[in-house]
Amino acid sequence: MARNFVQPGDTLTLTAPRALASGDGFMVGGIFAVALAAAAIGKPVEARRVGVWDLTKAAGAAWTAGQKLYWDNTAFNVTTTANANLIGAATQAAASAAVTGRVLLTGQIAA
């Protein structure tokens, strides 16, 4: 392996931009991740950038499997409304009344 390889990057230590509970989605710059533990604002938190997660979704929006999903960094939830924060895709349908939805995080960097 190349000597300059650091890590796969699937899990990173980031600075919590707000108080986070374990399982909360959040953004630091263009990086979207899910907190693996609770963290106070400004404290380091281990976070995962990829995988399939049940995340809080925007109220009233139904999802279909495979639909592109975005992070609303004001409401702190996943939405179908296209914005610069594309985070992945729905792995299964979610009813409009559901409060969470299953999301495949692709680990891409937001624009």
Output the keywords:
mainly beta, four-stranded antiparallel β-sheet, 41% strand, globular, 111 residues
What report would you give on this structure?
- The protein is mainly beta.
- The protein has one domain: Virus Head Decoration Protein, Chain: A.
- It has no helices and nine strands.
- The protein has a five-stranded antiparallel β-sheet, with no helix packed on it. A four-stranded antiparallel β-sheet has the order 1-4-3-2, with no helix packed on it.
- The chain is globular.
- The N and C termini lie far apart (30 Å).
| CATH topology-level name | Virus Head Decoration Protein, Chain: A
Strand arrangement in the largest pleated sheet: 5-9-8-6-7
Tertiary shape: globular
Mean pLDDT: 96
- How many helices in DSSP terms? 0
Biggest β-sheet: count, sense, barrel? Answer: 5 strands, antiparallel
CATH architecture: Beta Barrel
Topology record:
Elements: E1 11-15, E2 25-28, E3 31-35, E4 44-48, E5 50-56, E6 68-72, E7 77-79, E8 86-90, E9 100-106
Antiparallel strand pairs: 1-4, 2-3, 3-4, 5-9, 6-7, 6-8, 8-9
Brief synopsis:
By secondary structure, the chain is mostly beta strands. The protein has one domain (11-106): Beta Barrel (Virus Head Decoration Protein, Chain: A), CATH 2.40.300.
